[in-house]
Amino acid sequence: MNPTTKSALLWGVVGMLTTGVLAQGAVLFGVGPRLSVVAGVAMALVVGLVVAVVTYVIEPRIESKGRA
């Protein structure tokens, strides 16, 4: 697997898991609205997908400038 693709997928997983944890913490502490399980999973999947796509596009540009 291409290292850029692998990195993008891993960052997507990190974004997805972080969103899930934050959503459950908000429900647990009563800070946000109560989410159904389906809504929480859908939100986490969307965030994970967005993070993976953005990472896939941005990472080569950052590496080409020598900042990585």
Quick synopsis:
The protein is mainly α and 68 residues long.
Characterization of this structure:
By secondary structure, this protein is mostly helical. It has one domain. The protein has helices at residues 3-29, 37-64. The protein is elongated and about 45 Å long. The two termini are 20 Å apart. The model has no long low-confidence stretch (mean pLDDT 90). This is DUF7981 domain-containing protein.
Characteristic key phrases:
transmembrane helix, single chain, 81% helix, 68 residues, 2 helices, elongated, transmembrane, membrane, mainly alpha, DUF7981 domain-containing protein, DUF7981
Q: How many helix segments? A: 2
Helix- and strand-based class?
mainly alpha
Shape summary: elongated
Total domain modules: 1
Sheet of most strands = none
What secondary-structure arrangement, pairings included, does this model have?
Elements: H1 3-29, H2 37-64
Helix pairs in contact: 1-2
InterPro entries: DUF7981 (IPR058287)
Keywords: Membrane, Transmembrane, Transmembrane helix
Transmembrane segments: 39-58
